[in-house]
Design brief:
The chain is 44% helix and 16% strand. It is α/β, with parallel strands linked by helices and 317 residues long. InterPro entries: AB_hydrolase_1, AB_hydrolase_fold, DNA-binding_regulatory.
Length: 317
Amino acid sequence: MKKLKHKKLWLSSIIILLVCVLFTGAGFYFFKVACVPGKKSFLSSSSKVIKKSDPLYREKIWFKKTAKQKWYIESADEKFKLDANFIPYKTSNKTAIVLPGYMDTKEDMGEYDALFHQLGYNTLTPDPRAQGKSEGKYIGYGWPEKDDVKKWVSYLLQKYGQNQQVVIYGLSMGAATAMMTSGLKLPHQVKAFVEDCGYTSVKDEIEHEAGVLYNMPAFPRFPLVEILSGINKIKVGYFMGNASSVKQLHKNHRPMLFIHGSRDNFVPTKMVYPNYNATRGPKEIWVAPAAKHAKSFSKHPQEYKRRVATFLAKYVK
């Protein structure tokens, strides 16, 4: 009888150990998929050919032909060299910091640089750490990058003058970065934010993608996302649930414009509402009809420009 009990206990221990090894292995696999830079099968590859049929053809051609200054800083934790484009607008004292999305680079943000240039802004567009020409080991989904953005603001003011009025704009992951940055103590020169299709938290977005990309039900999504979050804590320095746009927005009192496509399935449209409700400053929201993820500008170019221009004109003179 004792031998039988010992055998059952031994078998149970082996099974538990194997399950733990399996889930840990899966956690490391998904960490590599989500957080290590490289080609991502779930991202559509964008063509570099600019077609005249593109609704943003004029903006993209302008960006391609426009001279760009190269700016560099060290990341906030002083581990990596970060790279950015700076495009001056005459002698303007207004600058938009333009933040790219997940696995995008500063070169992918040309139409947004053009948009702000049309509104009379200089643009400072950095590659996030581990993307484009910036150094880095892991994609931080906006949480470590928020401190880099604050450092870019300081560098801009030091290099270009304390009379600068700064707007922080972000798209997708860049939008989450902008919202997370809004909760930091920032120089008074930061006047407003514009976020387009940012998520409520890193954990929320990872859980959503696990369901959409892998059809993963509640189990094993839990505990797999928790294991992934623990690996992220070890590798990147934070638990994914703590990287919350909503929590940071609760500390923000500056103006913010929220934009989201009504047909966004990558960062679901419903996420814009808790973000919008969380901020404490003046705010406006626009859900762009029939627009998919990060496509509000191309779907409604004139309306997009009008809404951004009208909102910012109230706070940046």
